[in-house]
Fold this sequence. Notes:
Elements: H1 9-16, H2 20-27, H3 40-53, E1 56-62, H4 70-76, E2 77-85, H5 88-111, H6 119-122, E3 125-130, E4 142-146, H7 159-169, E5 170-181, H8 189-207, H9 221-230, E6 233-239, E7 253-260
Parallel strand pairs: 1-2, 1-4, 2-3, 4-5
Antiparallel strand pairs: 5-7, 6-7
Helix pairs in contact: 1-2, 3-4
Amino acid sequence: MFSPEGPTVRELVVQALSSVERGYDLLAPKFDHTPFRTPDAVLDAVGSVLERTGPYTDGLDLCCGTGAGLDVLRRVCRTSVTGVDFSAGMLAVARRRAGRATEAGAAEAGATGAGGSGAGDAGPRVSWVRGDARALPFTAAFDLVVSLGALGHFVPAELPLLFGRVGAVLRPGGVFALPVFAPPPPRSRAFWTLLGFDAVMRVRNAVWRPPFVMYYRAFRFGDVLGELERAGFRPEPHALPGFGRRADGSPRARLIAARRLP
């Protein structure tokens, strides 16, 4: 995080003392060089499951950030991919990233002599929308919504609203996909690191305004499943085997593919 490419300690402090929106605007140029970005291993594992449950027509990346999930959605969506985030700074980085990917794809096609035109050759069209996940500016326009690490930006009381909004933008039978990880063992360094991070954030939000909501241990797996069912979804957990298993044999990581009921 503190490499030359990543943010300095001072920059992180300024971000943490800002609102969530302003904080991510400030962090956006260096976000991809921090541990906060969803790791490529998670993106690849999610894409592999969605390839088996798809294909899909139109996909939405909820709280898309700098667009790390774009390649996942382009793998499984035929017509369109949309990223939504309420940070203008993060969306600006996502647009530049998508532009570079398009240029690279065109160059590769030219080098191999690929010809033709149209959406089928270029892949799904990509668009970016600034908006709040709790008030999504769409109708039922998607058959896939993914959330890649965004749940920590919502408190438990907001889950019914969030899942209800996702259900409203999905077509009947559409899928809401989100990876979830089991908490690390209590005796591990990772457990105490995440617990300490959340404790600092809670103290910060108790004494400083506006709040900066970003927690790593906000939800239990069973609670997420229950809220999805109450919001009209049928959740189907898929193990992500590349992340191993816990001592009791349960997966360390799962992808919840929650299908919207008619």
